[in-house]
From TrEMBL:
The lineage of its organism: Bacteria, Pseudomonadati, Pseudomonadota, Betaproteobacteria, Nitrosomonadales. Its main location: membrane. This is Outer membrane protein assembly factor BamA. GO terms for biological process: Gram-negative-bacterium-type cell outer membrane assembly; protein insertion into membrane. Pfam families: Omp85 (PF01103), POTRA (PF07244). GO terms for cellular component: cell outer membrane. The gene is bamA.
């Protein structure tokens, strides 16, 4: 006897309370109609098992549970001689997802997005998911400015209960911003206001930046920029009344209209301090950037409250609350501010916790931390700790947090989280010139050996001109006080016979030394060293007379015992992506007159000053200024060894000129020019560094517009401004996945006959 119990979900939901059958004991359970689903899966959803009593209520629950899986489009239960038969009609599986007309996106990128909404190969087909996927696809196109996009979905049945899904896409053209209007701008020209917007009408570079395509997020950012622009210029009552974004019927052009009310321009009448100051009022008043008579600026007011809050934080008041209350005089168009100071409770730092250092040891970071545990909270020391850790160069990112300690009102923890970056460096240098053609060099350096903070470097240069093999080692904390110690060993061979820019000679040197670094202040270091060098010179058939004379006077082999001393001040915020701060250094070396261990008699001194200035009109943009001066001379009746001369030209000095090509020159009997170098060198550089347009504020890619100038003079030459060469051009630096890349293209200025030009220069490497 065969009896149908329930047919489909509707019967289960709306079944009569009267039983459709008499309860019975299930002798067996049989599943029919399944193709991909395992029978065990069906059994797991049934509320009854063999030997148990089947009821009308259990039948309804079984159907609801099986439908809820989403695997089936129809479920029926039947009884056959006390055997429960479960008849299944499975939903088809998705065999493939294809696209036609897809051009604006990579297929893999779209498939990943559809997978996130539940549509992917081998998954169960669901018409609702297909509709969601279609809407998601349209949303992705709209985010790229394709407002005329049309998506048609086709579902094709295939064998073995499968379907193929195809999205046919008519992308159309990208909808561009045709016009942006600011209605109500009277005291500031509309053209000036539009220049601060990120969104703009099509221009020279909008094909790359995509800023001519409407974005709700970008518009919100532009409106906030507009608000800040007015508030920083005294328009205290400025207001954005409304914003309209409209699109033409053909979906080709977008019009944006911003309606504003400028209000009056206010000046500051007075600034008062009130509340519990805890710091001498005279000291706090020095931090106030707004003065009576100044035009109101929200930026300066914000900076003032921040500086006061930071100053209180230096004394342990980590949660100080500083607010400025305005009092407007609309008749006089003046505003008075009362800055209320609530220092809150003074707090201690309980623990300093470090996370994220999977490779670097804790001590490498802790020795840079200036905020001590169990001491008063000090905002300045905490900021200094972050700067010092970032300056190590071992981490991509350093973040600090000071959460309150649960259950305590006067304690916080200092949590330092770092993101490790590869600290091994395999560098390859390359350059082109008419004389050397392609020149390659390389070095291997591990700045954080086994996470200890120690540095080991090996340099190998096997070019035809220079062969260098060197090994260096540095322990930055040889003593617990921060005294560093390092060793250097090298073997160097130079052969300039194939060069047209450097005079003909060859040399072979070997040597080594030890050096120490002594911290004398928070950012100041004193460096000292002692080294030994032995150099053998060999003259070629085209060596200049000045080289031959030196060898005749002092011999082919020279030994040097060299003492070095230097001072370094380093205040840059990051070695990897510096934006503010600077480097100042003075270094000097003196050959010691130690008989056979010190035949040479000379001294060299070099001064460098480099500073980064953040530009307030664009985030992560900074101006780098660099100046260098070098001077060298022989003593004790001996001249400066020619192989100790200064050189200029190329990367690191004056780009656009061949490496070492600036300065005194000589000509052989064939009229071939060779550079001698000199005993005085002046270098100056200015470079504006800014993010790559379209990359947001990603610091790993930076463009630069530079101006370089410099020259080298010989001992018998007078330093004249007319001799200085200069160049200007563009640079690009990229911390790529395969290593740091540097490119520059320069246009040499004040070029004279015989100058060796090298417009394109680059350096590349890889990290490990």
């Amino acid at each position: 006897m065969k009896k149908k119990l329930v047919a489909g979900l509707v019967a289960a939901l709306f079944a009569s309370p009267v039983l459709a059958f008499e309860p019975f004991v299930v002798k067996d359970i049989r599943v029919e109609g399944i193709q991909r689903t395992e029978a065990g899966t069906v059994f797991s959803y049934l509320p009854v098992k063999v030997g148990e009593t089947m009821t009308d209520d259990k039948a309804a629950k079984a159907i609801k549970a099986l439908f809820a899986t989403g695997f089936f489009k129809d479920v029926r239960l039947e009884i056959e001689n006390d055997v429960l038969v479960v008849l299944i009609d499975e939903r088809p599986a998705i065999a493939a997802v294809n696209f036609t007309g897809l051009k604006a996106f990579e297929k893999d990128q779209i498939l990943k997005g559809l997978r996130e909404v539940g549509l992917a190969e081998s998954r169960i087909f669901d018409r609702a998911l297909v509709e969601r996927a279609e809407q998601e696809l349209k949303r992705q196109y709209l985010s790229r400015g394709y407002y005329a996009v049309n998506v048609t979905t086709t579902v094709t049945p295939l064998e073995r209960n499968r379907v193929g899904i195809n999205f046919s896409i008519e992308e159309g053209d990208v909808t561009k911003i045709h016009q942006i209007n600011i209605v109500g701008a009277q005291q500031i020209p509309e053209k000036e206001l539009l220049s601060i917007f990120e969104l703009r009408t099509p221009g020279w570079f909008t094909w790359y930046t995509k800023n001519d395509q409407y974005s709700k997020q970008k518009l919100a950012g532009d409106l906030e920029t507009l608000r800040s622009y007015y508030l920083n210029r005294g328009f205290l009552e400025f207001n954005i009344e409304s914003t309209q974004v409209s699109i033409t019927p053909d979906k080709q052009h977008i019009y944006i209209t911003v309606n504003i009310t400028e209000g009056n321009k206010y000046t500051v009448s007075s600034v008062k301090l009130a509340g519990d100051l805890r710091v001498p009022e005279d000291e706090l008043r020095k931090l106030i950037e707004l003065r009576p008579g100044d035009t109101f600026s929200r930026e300066k007011l914000t900076d003032t409250t921040k500086k006061i809050s930071d100053r209180l934080g230096n004394d342990g008041y980590a949660f100080a609350n500083v607010n400025a209350a305005p009092e407007l005089d609309k008749e006089k168009q003046a505003v008075a501010f009362t800055i209320f100071v609530d220092p809150g409770r003074r707090v201690y730092v309980r623990n300093v916790n470090i996370t994220g250092n999977t490779r670097s040891r804790d001590e490498v970071l802790r020795r840079e931390v200036r905020q001590m545990e169990a001491s008063w909270y000090d905002g300045e020391k905490i900021n200094k700790s972050r700067t010092r850790i970032d300056r190590l160069g071992y981490f991509e990112d350093v973040t600090l947090e000071t959460p309150p300690v649960p259950g305590a009102t006067d304690q916080v923890d200092l949590n330092i989280n770092v993101k490790e970056k590869p600290t091994g460096n395999i560098m390859l240098g390359a350059g082109f010139s008419s004389s050397e053609k392609l020149v390659l060099s390389g070095s291997i350096q591990q700045q954080n050996l086994f996470g200890s903070g120690k540095t080991v470097g090996v340099q190998v240069n096997t070019s035809k001109i220079n062969k260098v093999y060197s090994l260096s080692y540095t322990d930055p904390y040889y003593t617990i006080d921060g005294v560093s110690r390092g060793f250097d060993i090298y073997h160097r061979k130079t052969d300039t016979s194939s060069l047209t820019t450097i005079a003909d000679y060859s040399s072979s040197s070997f040597g080594g030394g030890v050096r120490f670094g002594l911290p004398i202040a928070e950012d100041d270091y004193l460096n000292m060293g002692l080294s030994f060098d032995s150099t053998r010179l060999t003259m070629g058939p085209y060596s200049p007379a000045v080289y031959l004379k030196y060898v005749n006077d002092f011999g082919e082999r020279n030994t040097t015992t060299l003492a070095t001393i230097g001072w370094l001040r380093e205040t840059i915020d990051s070695r990897l992506y510096p934006t503010k701060g600077g480097i100042a250094s003075i270094s000097a070396e003196l050959s010691l007159p130690l008989g056979s261990l010190g035949k040479l008699r000379y001294y060299r001194a070099n001064f460098q000053r480099q500073e980064f200035f953040p530009m307030p009109w664009w985030r992560n943009t900074s101006l780098m200024l660099n100046g260098e001066f070098g001077y060298a001379k022989g003593y004790g009746g001996r001249g400066l060894p020619f192989f100790k001369n200064f050189y200029a030209g190329g990367i690191g000095s004056v780009r656009g000129y061949d490496s070492g090509s600036l300065g005194p020159v000589v000509y052989d009997t064939y009229g071939q020019r060779s550079n001698l170098g000199g005993n005085r060198r002046v270098i100056a550089n200015a470079e504006l560094l800014f993010p790559m347009p379209g990359s947001g504020f990603d610091k790993s890619v930076r463009l630069g517009a530079f101006f370089d100038m410099g020259q080298v003079w010989g001992e018998d030459e007078k330093m004249k401004l007319g001799d200085v060469r200069y160049s200007y051009g563009l640079s690009l630096t990229w911390s790529s996945p395969m290593g740091p890349l540097k490119f520059s293209y320069a246009n040499p200025g004040r070029r004279k006959s015989g100058d060796e030009i090298q417009r394109l220069q680059f350096q590349m490497g890889t990290v490990f």
